What does this fold into?
Amino acid sequence: MATTTAVKTTRNYIKGEWVESKGKESQDVVNPASGEAIGKVTFSTSAEVDAAVQAARGAFQEWRSTPPMTRARYMFKLKNVLEERFDDCAKVCTTEVGKTLEESRGEVRRAIEVVEAMAGVPTLMKGQALEDIAAGLDCAVFRQPIGVFAAIAPFNFPFMVPLWFLPPAVATGNTFIVKPSEQVPLSQQLVFELLDEIGLPPGVVNLVNGGREVANALLAHPGINGVSFVGSTAVAKHVYAEAAKHGKRVQSLGGAKNFILVMPDAVLGPTVNALLGSCFGCAGQRCLAGSNIVAVGDIHDRLRDALIEKSKALKVGNGLDSSVQMGPLSSKAAKERVLRCIEAGVKEGAKLVLDGRSVKVPPHPGGFFVGPTVFDEVAPKMTIAKEEIFGPVVSILRAKDFDEAMKMAEDSPYANAGSIFTASGKCAREFGYRLPASMCGVNVGVAAPMAYFSFGGSRSSFMGDLKAHGGESVDFYTDRKVVSSRWL
Ligand code: NAD
It folds into this structure.
């Protein structure tokens, strides 16, 4: 077994081999709980990107003609090695991104579920057929893999997001390249160590480390047929345009500003618990995180008071400590950005009813901690209500009725996820019907679709048409070829 997890400097994985990058630029990988460097990522050169593409292209023909059941068996093997190393996977994830061990376990579990779902690829990939569309003429639709795909990943789910894409792409017969976020490259070092163990043919999966130059080299490379991207909206738009310019398929998942409506008839206790998980889970660094809570009618004061009380009690600290309920932000820059957002909220007149800026975590003075932060009396026009904060900061807005609350969500340029807490079936139905966001929860704080459903939003939160995992990923990674045949 390779021992890449012990290696501090990242390596690339190309054509079944671990290779040191010759790139001249590098950056520290920092543990956000301590502020200490735990590794180094080397930014790959364009020649290394090209080597990965050539390896993937070279492996494609043989891999596409490998029976789907044989490809599915690699998914079973991958699941097994991921289960065996489950705790290591969670620990690496927590160490480089800061979330709690419990949250990392959830992340690893969700990644495994994509692998499990794609073990069904012989069934998922089946086409359609119809006899006698004209006299003696039959028609069949085959789903064919397309070639080489690449994933460009964000920092906040270093383990899971690349595994939203790699299993469906590879199981359907494509070959693949992963570019992790340069901030958190260590989880994918471990994933590729496990991929190496299962013995895929060389070139089927490849890993290149780096930042935006590597991403742009992948987007421009003529040897790549399609790109799966997850990250901020500004970059998602750029990726969408670049990929289209270079004739590639693209699914580009962007940022979010999620609304949660709390109706006067919501059951307060479970609602507040769900809000805590939604707004402060992963320190608010989730594209599904609740950000704007709209208190409808007379529930406002009770909701605010209960939310403040429970938020205050959350234990903030190093995610490796099992008693900790919220970890640090992922980087110094992320912390500074969140502090600027809080400052903007104060300046614009929102009422800071719980201030997480002064949180202290004595054993870790160098960590990037911000405590749970709650703003009340937030107006829809304020910056904190409009822009993605991506931190443990929640805004409470008031609405007199359902329609006024709904309009706030409808006016947002983002449309990733949203939830309603209510005992009314009518409101719940109306919310699901009208919400522009594509992932919708009813009395559920984090409306995350499972691996066998599709994941992604709309408007500025998603560019493309076919979303991540589920059946849509099989559509994204395959072409549907229609064969009409008549035998004379
Ligand atoms: P980011 O956009 O800064 O980076 C994402 C990836 O793009 C990284 O691999 C980075 O190297 C690359 N990149 C950055 N700038 C680039 C450029 N100019 N050209 C080409 N590539 C570039 O995002 P992030 O900060 O790593 O991740 C956080 C964001 O991701 C948040 O906005 C969050 O909402 C979003 N996100 C969305 C989803 C979703 O499902 N919609 C899921 C997770 C995260």
